[in-house]
């Protein structure tokens, strides 16, 4: 039986916390920064958590747990 593969696109986008929740970055922080306000850019710098109802679907992409 071959090893199962981790989805590498998901591995670059998600990390696991110490408590086992899945962390993600917020969208909209890659370009067109001059049009966005300073408070909005500060908010986009922070990481966010994957919603608990969606954690199972994201977890399926990592057969051996998150890297």
Q: What is the typical, i.e. mean, pLDDT?
A: 91
- State the CATH architecture: Irregular
User: What percentage of amino acids are in beta strands?
Assistant: 5-15%
Model regions low in confidence, pLDDT < 50 over at least 5 residues: none
Structural class: alpha+beta
Radius of gyration in whole Å, from Cα?
Answer: 15 Å
How would you write the strand order of the largest sheet?
Answer: 1-2-3
Number of helices: 3
CATH class: Few Secondary Structures
Please tell me what the overall shape is.
elongated
Summarize the helix and strand pattern as letters. Answer: HEEHEH
CATH topology: Factor Xa Inhibitor
Helix content: 25-40%
Biggest sheet, open or closed, and with what strands and sense? 3 strands, antiparallel
Terminal CA distance reads 22 Å
Total strand count, please? 3
Number of domains: 1
Overview of this protein structure:
The protein is α+β, with helices and mostly antiparallel strands and 67 residues long. It has one domain (1-27, 36-67): Factor Xa Inhibitor, CATH 4.10.410. Helices cover 28% and strands 15% of the residues. The chain has three helices and three strands; from the N terminus they run αββαβα. A hairpin with a 5-residue loop joins strand 1 and strand 2. It starts with 7 loop residues before the first helix and ends in an 8-residue tail after the last helix.
